[in-house]
Design a protein that fits this description.
The chain is of the alpha+beta class. It has a domain at 34-132: NTF2-like, domain 1 (Nuclear Transport Factor 2, Chain: A, Roll). The chain contains 5 helices and 4 strands; from the N terminus they run αααααββββ. Strands 1-2-3-4 form a 4-stranded antiparallel beta sheet. Strand 2 and strand 3 (112-124) form a beta hairpin. The chain is globular and about 50 Å long.
């Protein structure tokens, strides 16, 4: 997992737009309050508050990819036991990429497993806030 994490961070750094002319670009300044949105979202996930977590997803993404009844039922079938940040990168445009590890257990089976959640947060300069572009975690993933 550590080698994957290192590869992920390197890939994020290489994929950054304008990485070659970073000294010419002026990075977007984001205050701590804006980053609290990410903490609030991850707390909502941790406590299984999926309706609240859904509110952090970009409004356009919510319209284009609405939650289905099946997805909602799946979220109700698991208990999140731990959410851990593994990597975080703030890009010059103010967007944020996070690699999160989520441990969850089936409510009926009590079988625990771990999934990886790759979050991409877009900085909205007009609203002065971050929006989750990658959607809710895929709890059906088999990492």
């Amino acid at each position: 997992m550590k080698s994957f994490l290192a590869l992920f961070v390197v890939a994020l750094l290489l994929a950054m737009p304008g990485a070659g002319d970073a000294k010419d670009a002026k990075p977007v300044k984001i205050n701590r309050k804006a980053f609290m949105v990410i903490d609030d979202y991850n707390n909502a996930v941790r406590w299984g508050e999926w309706g609240k977590a859904w509110e952090y997803v970009d409004p356009v993404v919510r319209v284009d990819h609405p939650l289905t009844q099946l997805e909602l039922k799946r979220f109700e079938m698991v208990k999140i036991t731990e959410v851990t940040e593994k990597a975080s990168v703030v890009l010059p445009d103010g967007s944020v990429d996070k690699l999160m590890e989520i441990q969850l257990a089936g409510k009926f089976t009590q079988v625990e497993r771990t999934i990886t959640d790759r979050q991409h947060w877009r900085w909205d300069a007009k609203a002065k806030r971050l929006w989750l572009m990658s959607g809710l975690p895929d709890i059906t993933a088999q990492d």
